[in-house]
UniProtKB/TrEMBL annotation, chain A:
<dbReference type="Pfam" id="PF00528">
    <property type="entry name" value="BPD_transp_1"/>
</dbReference>
<keyword id="KW-0812">Transmembrane</keyword>
<dbReference type="InterPro" id="IPR000515">
    <property type="entry name" value="MetI-like"/>
</dbReference>
<feature type="transmembrane region" description="Helical">
    <location>
        <begin position="534"/>
        <end position="558"/>
    </location>
</feature>
<dbReference type="GO" id="GO:0055085">
    <property type="term" value="P:transmembrane transport"/>
</dbReference>
<feature type="transmembrane region" description="Helical">
    <location>
        <begin position="48"/>
        <end position="69"/>
    </location>
</feature>
<feature type="transmembrane region" description="Helical">
    <location>
        <begin position="276"/>
        <end position="295"/>
    </location>
</feature>
<feature type="transmembrane region" description="Helical">
    <location>
        <begin position="89"/>
        <end position="116"/>
    </location>
</feature>
<feature type="transmembrane region" description="Helical">
    <location>
        <begin position="481"/>
        <end position="506"/>
    </location>
</feature>
Automatic annotation (TrEMBL), chain B:
<comment type="similarity">
    <text>Belongs to the bacterial solute-binding protein 1 family.</text>
</comment>
<feature type="signal peptide">
    <location>
        <begin position="1"/>
        <end position="20"/>
    </location>
</feature>
<dbReference type="GO" id="GO:0030288">
    <property type="term" value="C:outer membrane-bounded periplasmic space"/>
</dbReference>
<protein>
    <submittedName>
        <fullName>Iron transporter</fullName>
    </submittedName>
</protein>
<keyword id="KW-0732">Signal</keyword>
<keyword id="KW-0406">Ion transport</keyword>
<keyword id="KW-0813">Transport</keyword>
<dbReference type="InterPro" id="IPR026045">
    <property type="entry name" value="Ferric-bd"/>
</dbReference>
<keyword id="KW-0410">Iron transport</keyword>
């Protein structure tokens, strides 16, 4: 990339010099030809390219900085961490990631199959009801589960007051502060990722394949294993990646349930200001994340599934028969545990809180802070995403691919690592912005820009480049095309991306915790603090508000899959 | 199409401007403050008068104490003086170290005098001859008054009277070497090694026992504890609710649990009170003046305000700690009053509280070696 930018400057010099100098050195011609070749004869304007490169740099610098710092942590520290801490953290993190991913995939796929392919009563409604856990941030979910199942929770009280339970099973046996507690909570709030993707591909599945299988004498269950499941593999893979990346990056739910993974350890190291150790652990976590992404890319390349679209027929609906009660029980059970229970706990405590005056001036100042910082992040993301997606779709080349990939760096990696990089950079090099809320908003941009990019890209790919060319031929300069032609047509997509960024930002916890300036608490931070002090009547209204706000982009998400 | 586009673009621009303006105001307050404050808060007032009439500048307070104890005090300060307080709760003293070249805080409030001592040792706090500093005994403030303590606490066991009697309870911190305490009903609870109270306690043990025995103690305790929590609040609630028989906390957490409407049948053991024992481990909460803070005039005003007797009482506030100046008449709820043990009636470990700062760094290293800093259960 460095080379290329050098080429570019040489190219520019060349152009400027052309007026006076006829015979420029051959070497410049050579570079110029290379440069054009790499863009397939259509290089973007230097302003646009520069903008894209700046954005990509902003996106990736924090992470590069963390890696850089970790390399200077000293041999001693590396040794000590590798000997003692890292193996344990690896085991904690891996076992949790694996268990949650496996279980969420099973729940997601079975639910998708039941809802899409069987005659479950009310399946139209279940289709979106079962995606609802997406709107509950897992740390909020964890709070509600602690209230219900915790060692002083409602279930424990019922248990204690029911003599036959105590007599037959002894004391209250559930311990939510354990591996299984974390596992359960994370599974319940992440399965919708697989569910949504799997139902989309089930809906697209061609009936012909199944009928061939059936004509060969296969039973329904055989068809599921031999025909349906292989077709679902890409969907399952994509969902599993999303979930495992989520588990790797989650801080709130894991810390509240007193479990320690890499992300939590980095946060605690950072909270203890052992930044060198924090960056060492971050490097390991980065390697883990990249490893997962690599596995995903490999499996996707290896397996190709083709469906013929010209003979597409809607899949038929299977009769549940005697399985009907069980299927209903299963679906209702999952829905109850992952949506009804948490929401009713929140409503119960919000009700108490509001009557005790939780919605005071402080609450609204926290809400305003949340709104301000998330809104700024959303606007910035919408603006910054434009040059990137325009470059990517209109000028495909190695350089744009690199720019595009760099923008995903902060998205794939946990928020604590991004925040760590921000603290390093701003405290040491940009003190004017350090401990202001701009820093928090910028961290959100680094974390969530790809959400805005994906949404905008989807819209832009529907606009033919011929439209640009037509505008060009009528004498518009490129920037004018951007604003007068392209932007109006893709605006809905861009705005949807902005909404996604807004909601993700407002729910974000670890980076906000690490970067918030004095006197600037957001709703998410308040939920975390009040809940860890067991002041549920103050935590619940804020949490409920976060859930309600999260419903906004759900419609868009459901349509996307 | 053109018109709608223009309208939308205009709306976005307008929104952006509103944001920029809204934030810009805050920004001005944050960054423009340091210069006038050097000249004096009087001129400062005139300069900002045009924007907001009541504003008398601001002050940035980092607090390591529980937010519930501090926020009311800060609100009272704003009400009394008109100075806005920007508070960062749950702050770590090392954040001040990290920001040494880019100082943000004016005052650091801590529940561990060791942390303040450490900051002073690193040259990050600044001495000043505050009005009213004489009310604090010399043992409880730095020689140049850069930091001082207002309230004291001692470490001990809170226990659930329904699960264990006073006679059955361990009376010395040393008894925790015995693995049998893991087998009492529900076991016992401690805090994470990153907790300020725990750091102070382990410093005191190192002073008494040396590093080797202390490391062993940490290992045994983190092995046997039934729960390891982030804070003491979790422990008092859990012991009160009967999840654990007892837990290692500061004495005022016992006071807090007594005020709870239910689950309040708890007792407290002041440790190591026999003649041949080390005495109870004490610590203190207080405040320090950060060197070169952006609003130093206001910070000095804050500390002098804090030293007023009524505000020293307020500092204790909901925490129900013991005021060092007990004659200022901190009042305790009726449930707590009979259980207050005056600091002078206790056998206190002979390590001077001010010494804690010298132990801070090595104690943290010891805790990290043991892994207790990251353990949660």
């Amino acid at each position: 990339m460095k080379n290329d930018s050098k080429n570019k400057s040489q190219l520019n010099n060349n152009q400027n010099a052309k007026v006076g100098e006829k015979n420029s050195p051959t070497i410049l011609h050579f570079f110029r030809k290379k440069w054009f070749d790499s863009w397939q004869g259509n290089p973007p304007g230097s302003g646009l390219l520069l903008l894209g490169m700046i954005v990509a740099a902003i996106m990736s610098i924090p992470i590069i900085y963390v890696v850089w710092r970790s390399l200077f942590a000293g041999v001693d520290r590396w040794k000590r961490l590798l000997d003692g801490r890292i193996p344990e953290l690896l085991w904690n993190t891996f076992s949790l990631t694996f268990a949650v991913t496996a279980c969420a995939v099973i729940i997601g796929v079975t639910l998708a199959w039941i809802v899409v392919r069987t005659d479950l009563p009310g399946r139209k409604y279940w289709q979106w009801l079962l995606a609802l856990p997406l709107v509950i941030p897992p740390y909020v979910g964890a709070v509600t589960y602690i209230i219900v199942f915790g060692p002083s929770g409602w279930v424990r009280n019922i248990w204690r007051d029911t003599p036959w339970l105590v007599d037959t099973f002894g004391n209250y046996p559930l311990n939510i502060y354990s591996f299984w507690g974390v596992f359960f909570v994370l599974t319940m709030f992440t399965y919708p990722y697989v569910y949504l993707i799997a139902s989309a591909s089930l809906r697209k599945m061609n009936r012909n394949f199944e009928e061939v299988a059936r004509s060969q004498g296969m039973t329904t269950s055989q068809i599921f294993w031999k025909v349906n499941l292989p077709f679902l593999r890409p969907a399952i893979g994509a969902g599993a990646i999303l979930i495992s990346l989520y588990v790797l990056s989650d801080f709130g739910a894991i810390a509240m349930l007193r479990y320690v993974t890499f992300t939590a350890a980095i946060y605690f190291q950072r909270a203890g200001f052992d930044t060198a150790s924090a960056s060492v652990l971050s490097l390991v976590l980065i390697i883990l994340t990249v490893g997962i992404l690599w596995i995903e890319a490999r499996t996707r390349k290896k397996n190709k599934y083709y469906q013929t679209s010209n003979t597409f027929r809607e899949p038929d609906i299977l009769k549940l028969g005697k399985w009907k009660p069980w299927a209903i029980l299963y679906v209702v059970g999952v829905f109850f545990v992952s949506v009804v229970l948490p929401i009713s706990v929140l409503v119960y405590w919000s009700n108490i809180g509001i009557r005790m005056g939780a919605l005071d001036e402080r609450f609204f100042s926290f809400a305003w802070n949340s709104l301000k910082v998330s809104g700024l992040a959303a606007i910035l993301c919408m603006l910054l995403a434009l040059p990137i997606i325009y470059l990517k779709t209109r000028y495909p080349s190695t350089i744009t691919t690199i720019i595009d990939k760099l923008c995903y760096a902060g998205y794939a990696l946990p928020g604590v690592i991004v925040a760590l990089g921000f603290v390093f950079i701003f405290n040491n090099h940009i003190p004017a912005l350090y401990s202001t809320f701009y820093m928090v908003a910028l961290a959100f941009v680094v974390r969530f820009l790809p959400q805005a990019m994906q949404a905008g890209e989807a819209s832009l790919s529907l606009v033919s480049p011929r439209i640009d060319e037509a505008a060009r031929s009528l004498g518009y300069p490129p920037w004018k095309i951007m604003f007068k032609v392209i932007l109006p047509t893709i605006l809905p997509g861009v705005l949807a991306g902005g909404a996604l960024v807004f909601v993700s930002s407002i729910k974000e916890l670890p980076a906000t915790l690490m970067l918030r300036p004095p006197g600037f608490d957001t709703l998410a931070v308040r939920v975390y603090f009040e809940a860890s002090e067991a002041i549920y009547h103050l935590a619940a209204p804020a949490a409920l508000l976060l859930v309600i706000v999260s419903i906004i982009p759900l419609r868009y998400l459901l349509k996307k899959y | 199409m053109n018109k709608t586009l223009k309208a939308i673009l205009f709306a976005i621009l307008a929104l952006g401007l509103v944001f920029a303006a809204g934030c810009g105001n805050n920004e001005d307050e944050n960054t423009a403050e340091p210069d006038p404050s050097e000249v004096g808060s009087g001129q400062d007032e005139q300069q900002t008068d045009e924007e907001v009439v009541e504003l008398d500048g601001e002050i940035v307070v980092y607090s390591a104490r529980n937010e519930r104890f501090v926020q009311a005090l800060l609100d009272k300060f704003t009400a009394d003086t008109g100075i806005e307080v920007q508070a960062l709760h749950d702050a770590n003293p090392l954040q001040v170290v990290e920001e040494a070249n880019n100082v943000r805080a004016d005052v650091f409030i801590s529940n561990d005098l060791g942390a303040l001592g450490y900051l002073h040792m690193e040259g990050l706090l600044q001495g000043y001859d505050f009005d009213g500093i004489d009310s604090i005994p010399a043992d409880f403030r730095a020689d140049d008054n850069a930091y001082f303590a207002i309230s004291a606490r001692s470490r001990g066991f809170i226990y659930n009277k329904d699960m264990i009697t006073e006679d059955e309870m361990p009376k010395s911190i040393e008894e925790l070497f015995d693995p049998k305490w893991a087998d009492v009903e529900g076991g016992y609870a401690i805090t994470r090694g990153g907790n300020g109270g725990m750091i102070g306690h382990i410093s005191a043990l190192r002073y008494e026992w040396g590093d080797e025995k202390t490391a062993e103690w940490i290992e045994v305790v983190s092995e046997n504890a039934a729960a390891i929590t982030q804070g003491h609040g979790d422990i008092r609630r859990a012991v009160g609710a009967g999840e654990h028989s007892f837990g290692l906390v500061n004495n005022y957490y016992f006071h807090q649990q007594l005020v709870e409407p239910d689950n309040n049948n708890v007792g407290f053991i002041y440790l190591d009170q026999e003649a041949d024992q080390m005495g109870v481990v004490a610590n203190a909460a207080g405040a320090g003046l950060v060197k070169d803070g952006p609003n130093q005039e206001n910070a000095i005003a804050f500390i002098e305000w804090l030293l007023l007797p009524e505000n020293q009482v307020m500092f204790v506030g909901e925490s129900l700690e013991l005021l060092i100046n007990s004659d200022y008449g901190a009042s305790y709820p009726a449930e707590v009053e009979p259980h207050i043990v005056d600091f002078n009636d206790l056998k206190v470990q002979d390590m001077p509280i001010k010494e804690l700062g010298n132990y801070f760094q090595d104690t943290r290293a010891l805790i990290e070696q043991s892994g207790l800093d990251l353990e949660l259960r």
